[in-house]
Design a protein that fits this description.
four-stranded antiparallel β-sheet, alpha/beta, Rossmann fold, 37% helix
Length: 322
């Protein structure tokens, strides 16, 4: 029997769920149901990304403790299972699920053992909304091109991952369609980015700037692991990667016929470049397929929590159906 593992991206819980996220959930749910109807053993995963500076700042703005804020908002995301009639087989929260931190630490330790991590001072322009650094030529009048907000100049010492080491290997994998990226324009976008040359990337943040909210870097209390390094690991932490009970991991990831991520175009680079590189460093199988969808927009702006153009998907579903 064919075995398929299917995921959606896990969202930050800094605000209410919005219609664009529900769109992704429904697209992926259709894929999961079709896979099951086709006779494939299928595992469909959702979750929330609790460890984010965005979540911390939103909690501070609301005047409540981060834990209280994150728990309350995560429940609203998980509650979409009902009105959207989602067929999730599992749902993971990165800050409370006991499977998650051991998996993140294992992936980190493997990269360290492989010589792929080093520490150095760094300065750059950071967008809290994207949780990433931008090069000067990527900015639009010193603003994040995604959120249209001014970036923050950050100077600190971080751990770096040797992404540049995997450039040629990633090009070969994507060019050969060993990792399929669809629709084709997004595949071309990733190849163009890879062929322009990869720089190593920061994979930790200062514990002080993160307000102590995150997975601590092993043996370095001054740092927490970069939210995206941890968030991407949810796909395998949910399958007990990093624990002795890893039968789920063998079945649904290591030996699966398809390992498919359904994502929005704004996080393509994280899934098609960074995540495969982390897995290559660990000697683990890569995703087989990344299905990318465009944004839902209003007045040429994407519907999102960050831009304040959110539409309540539960209300839409109760009014018009899924």
């Amino acid at each position: 029997m064919t075995t398929n593992f299917l995921t959606v991206a896990i969202p930050y819980v800094n605000a209410e769920p919005h219609l664009g996220y529900a769109y992704e959930l429904v697209l992926a749910d259709i894929h999961a149901r079709a896979s099951r109807l086709d006779g494939a053993a299928t595992w469909f995963l959702g979750g929330t990304d609790d460890y984010s500076l965005k979540n911390v700042l939103a909690a501070e703005d609301a005047g409540v403790p981060v834990r209280e804020f994150v728990d309350a908002h995560a429940k609203r995301f998980e509650a979409l299972r009902g009105p959207l009639d989602l067929s999730f087989d599992d749902f993971i929260r990165t800050s409370v699920d006991p499977r998650h931190i051991p998996a993140v630490r294992r992936l980190w330790a493997t990269a360290a053992e492989n010589g792929d991590l080093y520490k150095q001072p760094y300065s750059g322009d950071y967008c809290v909304g994207c949780e990433r650094f931008y090069a000067p030529d990527e900015l639009d009048d010193d603003r994040c091109p995604e959120h249209l907000r001014p970036v923050e100049r950050v100077e600190e010492e971080n751990w770096f991952f040797r992404l540049s080491r995997y450039q040629d290997q990633l090009i070969d994998i994507i060019d050969s369609d060993s990792l399929r990226i669809t629709p084709a324009p997004f595949r071309n976008e990733v190849l163009a980015f890879l062929q322009s040359g990869l720089d190593d990337i920061s994979v930790s943040r200062s514990n002080e700037r993160a307000r102590g909210w995150g997975v601590p870097v092993p043996d370095d209390p001054s740092q927490v692991i970069y939210v995206w390094f941890g968030a991407l690991t949810n796909y395998i932490s949910s399958l007990d990667y990093g624990t002795s009970a890893d039968g789920q991991y063998r079945r649904w990831w290591n030996e699966a016929d398809e390992r498919c991520h359904v994502i929005g175009k704004g996080i393509l680079r994280f899934h098609a470049v960074y995540w495969p590189a982390f897995l290559l460093a660990a000697g683990e199988p890569l995703p087989t397929h990344i299905r990318v969808h465009p944004y839902l927009t209003l007045g040429q702006l994407k519907l999102s929590k960050s831009t304040g153009t959110s539409v309540d998907p539960s209300h839409i579903a109760s009014t018009y159906g899924t």
